[in-house]
């Protein structure tokens, strides 16, 4: 019986007759494997409705999520890296920069912008992981420093969205100097009592964790984000012990006191707006206090 017997072996459709599934129509959750349409995934702010897995997104999406009507003024958008060390690995560093810029449509691994969230002014610096692993080179450090200067000058709260593999190897020492530079700028911001909120997203590691990412007035994170300095394998080999379960996850880091809270992406905008209101400069809160005192007297 031909029905129960395979007459022809295997799949015989020639490649040219195969039908392509159009790209980008469906999204499969890497955690629970639920399949949803990309439109729905976008509506869920790139999180899984079933298991709450937070997909990695970049500055384009974060700006869209945070800024009112997706309106913002981008700062220093044309800053691009030079090649101070004449660095060559599998290809020369300038070639790598140009190729990555073409592929990602970005100038470097961070974008900075001024806009409003729920009508409150905010300067946001958001890293892009798809630009050489969100690595921190001199352009990243410079753009963040300039955004902090802008915040200081205009007395607007500053928010950093970190997402990085750490320092940029191709800039070696220059890359490491960005840690000191950005930290010093943040100290000046703090002296002027301008609030700084740091959001750590998946993954925040290396020099970024060791500098600006952990210096916020509030250090917050998205669920499940990897947060650490060195990778787990390096640590395991160094201390010669097995690492605890969930090591370097946002939840583990929160439990050990390095984070203030973890926020779901859908609540992010409101929570940031609440924090800015809470951290408003003294004049405004003093004015509110006087008003409430007067109300109390009456
Ligand atoms: Zn899921």
Automatic annotation (TrEMBL):
It is found in: Cytoplasm. Keywords: ATP-binding, Cytoplasm, Fatty acid biosynthesis, Fatty acid metabolism, Lipid biosynthesis, Lipid metabolism, Metal-binding, Nucleotide-binding, Transferase, Zinc, Zinc-finger. Pfam families: Carboxyl_trans. Its cofactor is Zn(2+). It comes from the Bacteria. Residues 25-294 form the CoA carboxyltransferase N-terminal domain. Zn(2+) binds at residues 29, 32, 48, 51. Transmembrane segments: none annotated. Binds 1 zinc ion per subunit. GO terms for biological process: fatty acid biosynthetic process; malonyl-CoA biosynthetic process. One of its GO terms (cellular component) is acetyl-CoA carboxylase complex. Acetyl-CoA carboxylase is a heterohexamer composed of biotin carboxyl carrier protein (AccB), biotin carboxylase (AccC) and two subunits each of ACCase subunit alpha (AccA) and ACCase subunit beta (AccD). This is Acetyl-coenzyme A carboxylase carboxyl transferase subunit beta. It comes from Rufibacter tibetensis. The gene is accD.
């Amino acid at each position: 019986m031909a029905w129960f017997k395979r007459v022809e072996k295997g799949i015989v459709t020639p490649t040219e007759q195969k039908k392509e599934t159009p790209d980008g129509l469906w999204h499969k959750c890497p955690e629970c494997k639920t399949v949803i349409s990309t439109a729905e995934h976008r509506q869920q702010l790139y999180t899984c409705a079933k298991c709450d897995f937070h997909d990695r997104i970049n500055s384009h999406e974060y700006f869209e999520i945070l800024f009112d009507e997706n309106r913002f003024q981008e700062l220093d958008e044309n800053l691009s890296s030079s090649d101070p060390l004449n660095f060559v690995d599998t290809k020369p560093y300038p070639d790598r920069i140009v190729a990555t810029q073409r592929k990602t449509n970005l100038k470097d691994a961070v974008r900075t912008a001024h806009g409003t969230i729920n009508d409150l002014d905010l300067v946001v610096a958001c890293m892009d992981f798809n630009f050489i692993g969100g690595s921190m080179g001199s352009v990243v450090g410079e753009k963040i420093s300039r955004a902090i200067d802008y915040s200081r000058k205009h007395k607007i709260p500053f928010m950093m969205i970190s997402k990085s593999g750490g320092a940029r190897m191709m800039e070696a020492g220059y890359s490491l100097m960005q840690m000191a530079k950005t930290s010093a700028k943040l100290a000046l911001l703090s002296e002027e009592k301008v609030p700084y909120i740091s959001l750590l997203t998946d993954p925040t590691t290396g020099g970024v964790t060791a500098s600006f990412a952990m210096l916020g007035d509030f250090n917050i994170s998205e669920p499940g984000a990897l947060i650490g300095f060195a990778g787990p394998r390096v640590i395991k080999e160094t201390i010669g012990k097995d690492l605890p379960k969930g090591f370097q996850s946002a939840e583990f880091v929160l439990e050990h006191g390095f984070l203030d809270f973890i926020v779901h992406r859908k609540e992010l905008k409101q929570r940031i707006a609440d924090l800015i209101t809470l951290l408003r400069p003294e004049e405004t809160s003093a004015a509110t206090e006087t008003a409430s005192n007067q109300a109390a007297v009456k």
